[in-house]
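pinging the channel bc i need a second pair of eyes. not urgent but kinda urgent?? the chain im working w is below, pasted from the shared doc
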Amino acid sequence: MESDELIPINIEYEREDLDLEDELDEVAELPPPKKAKTKSKNKTNNEDKKRRRTSTVWRFFQMLPTKDEEKPTCKCKKCGKEYIATGAYGTGNLKQHLKVCPRKDTTDVGQLILGQNAMSFVEYVGIRAVFSYLCVDVPNISRNTAKNDMVKMYKREKERMKSVLASVPGKVCLTSDLWTSIATDGYMCVTAHFIDANWVLQKRVLNFCFMPPPHNGVSLFEKVYKLLSMWDIENKIFCVTLDNASSNDISKALVCNCEFFHLRCCAHILNLVVQDGLKEIDVVVQKIRESIKYVRGSQGRKKGFYESVKQMDLDGKKGLRQVVPTRWNSTFLMLQSALSYRRAFQHLELTDYNFKHSPTDSEWEKAEKIKKFLAVFYDVTLVFSDTKYPTANLYFPQVFIVSFTLKKESDSEDEYMRKMADQMLVKFEKYWIEFSVVLAIAVVLDPRYKLPFIDWCYQKLYGHASSLQYVKVREKLFALFGEYVSNVSAPSISSKMAGQATQETEEQYANEGFLFMMQEFDSFHSMDMGRQAQKTQLELYLDEPRVDRNAKLDILAFSKGNEFRYPELAAMARDVLSIPVSIVASESTFSVGG
């Protein structure tokens, strides 16, 4: 379960702002030569070229080359708009342009939000009339008041967010992504993911800020570390999920012996895997694509097709989906929609002599195979890309299904299916030759799976060689748990109750003979009790029977319910289960405005 609350966004101002209100014209001119008594047009232009420009606006403009008879001109470095730049015109027009330059507003978020022009709408007569109509007693405020109120609100929400992060009982995971605006300026979004004291999965956008070049690993690390230090969580980070850009590999070397620090975005990897498989389109896919194009080509063809739909007694509300070149899942959706109207296409072929693209029966069967194959990846993509993102325990079963499907189809008798699976398998093994160990640990913390599921999956994939992979996961699981044992010290309720029960029993009996016999009984079972006492919380959890796999289980509620039984295990589960498997949470921030 995920909680959506007011998300404070930190906006950084790293641009060199220009104070346009207070700046005076500072154009210094060299004195003209004493010998010259008259000026020609050519001389005027030459003198303009010699001027020493000291106004700060020239940081945002550049002079353009001109011919002898042309007036000198300059252009805005942001939007390219040109202005005359002779001494007679001064720099007032240039300063006015900087106030309304669309590229500057896009670049400097702070200038857009806190600038006087952005806040001046509260002083418009029409706006005040609307406010008065809605509420007679509404007070009229100035642009400065509106700006100050926004700054106060930002500071208040920032302190509130700091207190929330400080109260997180476990670690914090991050997702980060870069985005380039239409003005080719880079921005970074950093999102925090954590499980709060009530075992509710939370996400908060911490920063949405300008990211100047270069966008290499060192620069990204310095930027992120600076932001984390501002929030006082630089020592609480458990894992960072990034995309697959090569510049993001630097994070793997930042923390010594931190194997679980860096995680690649699973949704990005899956997209790359499927894109490789769909580089070569089969004839049947091409035919279906052309069939849909034909039907949607005119109103008359649409009418004829839906007549065929009615004749075949099919549901006409589903509609046909066309392929979007930049989205591989549109191919699956196209095949899915076309196959549901298979009989309608066959009927249209009989009634419309111009329709020449209908697949044959064998080709329809092949399309069904391709659709079933792509359905596996489509379902996994929905899990990884959900904005109400899942807990980390769902990763391992999904990636196992993808790997098993690829290995199975690579032995297919169909040449196209085999070739497509082989291409996808090469890309899959490039990123997932070894399954993420920390996300394999996450599925062990799910009581429906535990370690037997890991063992079974590796046997299905690797056969007799699976034991090495299984042993590796088991060793890392116990090593990670060992770190939490040393950090968490909370007495279990069972030990307290056992001590109280022993004391009450001894106080009830004064007969020493009876007590002696009971002590002998205790000695009789001391060996078995000793073995039980030596077991860790993780071992006790693994020894318990698994929950029915089909049970609708909220794993966070399960962990909360066992927090007092297994406090050390619960502390580990709180951190591991909060790991985001994709950066969709950060990517979606860039899409809020549509």
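so Residues 3-45, 105-109, 249-256, 490-506 have pLDDT under 50 and may be disordered. and The two ends are 26 Å apart (CA to CA). — does that match what u expected or am i reading it wrong
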